[in-house]
Amino acid sequence: MAEEFPAIASPLHLGPEGRGATLKNRIVFSPTTFGLPHDAYVRRIAGIARGGCAMVVIGDVPVRRHERASLFSRKGAAEYRDLVEAIHAGGALAAAQLHESDSDFKALIPYVPGVLMKKISMMELRHILNEKAKELVTNMPARKVRAITQAFGPAAVRARELGFDVMQIHGDRMVGSFSSALMSGRDDEYGGSPERRARFAVEAVRAVREAVPEMVIDYKLAVRQENPRYGQAGVLLEELPVFVPLLEEAGVSSFSVALANHGSLEDTIPPRKHPFFGEEGCFLRYADEVRKLTKLPVSGVGSLGTPAFVEEQIASGRIDFALMSRQLLADPEWPNKVLGGHADEARRCVRCNKDCLGGMQRHEGTHCIFDKKSGAAD
Ligand SMILES: Cc1cc2nc3c(=O)[nH]c(=O)nc-3n(C[C@H](O)[C@H](O)[C@H](O)COP(=O)(O)O)c2cc1C
């Protein structure tokens, strides 16, 4: 019964009293790109929402109009509406992960023949893409930068119109690249010192706060570390004391803390045998640092899924809610089972990455080796 896991079962209010949003329990589906045809994607998301989690974060919702799956195009809007309806029908809140990509795909065109002739591996291509992202971020005129940060406001308004309950700002991708001294070589008001590197993120948060003053803004805080180096974009651990107060002041309501990207995807989505992030709760060490700097709710992610372990992290106050991606792909019913007295029946993700990350990398869409068992196969 829920009494077995009272911390997971307890609701959590985000944002100020009387406004904001209430999570019905402490389990949130972490943003996950599926790369599936729309109907199959909606079925997946519907199943995850029905499985009992409190909120589903829809990953990588572009803030600008020209993007594929734009909030502003008729097709994009209809698709987001379908997703939101499916989430609400399942009894969960819907969050939009507002993001701006820093992938300069045009700059990759000269490398396409090399990839087709197998002279350039996908790993090398990823490296090239990261190098191009550095150039893009370093050389972008300040006027264009400001236009992008300001685009977060109208995107939030549009996402609210489409039914989203919560905004998440994706602090990785372009936001993360501007935050990072490894990715940004700028020396203007958007680069150089940590304060100036925080400016892109702060402007984006402010734009959303001004556009939708009543809404919860969760900030996906992408953290990187040295010795050993993990993560390229995002905020260095030592820089958190600069970033966290600035983001809080700009209007963030909660922080979701994860490892920064632009390195290997196997680091941000670590398999069981990862040399550094092999253990359950592998990124909570970063959430611990954020926790010291704010009184706002802080969530964590990283191979979470053992009911007793998750309960302990929440009950001890280490995190306020738990984000799960692969665990809810492996068993969307995890929250219902754990809170309904059947924790022993919850199927544990084995972190093989074969069909989730693997499926995405093979351009087959995100799946799970357990799909047949959970009836989620498409
Ligand atoms: C297939 C796949 C796609 C993902 N897509 C996104 C995304 O669009 N945005 C994002 O911020 N994180 C994305 N992630 C990262 C997850 O949100 C999560 O942080 C990561 O998988 C670690 O959590 P887990 O151990 O519970 O899977 C993705 C993860 C997977 C497996």
Q: What key attributes describe this structure?
A:
single chain; 17 helices; eight-stranded parallel beta barrel; 40% helix; 378 residues; alpha/beta; binds flavin mononucleotide; two-stranded antiparallel ribbon; TIM Barrel
Shape: globular
CATH architecture assignment name: Alpha-Beta Barrel
Bound ligand species: flavin mononucleotide
Q: Sheet bearing the most strands, described? A: 8 strands, parallel, barrel
Structural class assignment: alpha/beta
Brief summary:
This protein has 378 residues and is of the alpha/beta class.
Any overview of this molecule?
With 378 residues, the protein is an alpha/beta fold. The protein has helices at 6-9, 38-50, 74-89, 112-116, 122-139, 142-161, 173-179, 194-197, 199-211, 240-250, 265-268, 284-291, 307-315, 326-330, 334-339, 357-361, 371-374, and strands spanning 12-14, 21-23, 27-29, 55-62, 93-99, 166-170, 216-224, 235-236, 254-259, 298-300, 321-324. The protein has a single domain, classed as Aldolase class I (TIM Barrel). The strands form two sheets. Strands 3-4-5-6-7-9-10-11 form an eight-stranded parallel β-barrel, surrounded by seven helices. The protein has a two-stranded antiparallel sheet with strand order 1-2. It is globular and about 55 Å long. The structure holds flavin mononucleotide. Flavin mononucleotide (FMN) binds at residues 30-33, 59-60, 97, 170, 220, 258, 268-269, 301-304, 324-327, 356-357, 360, 366.
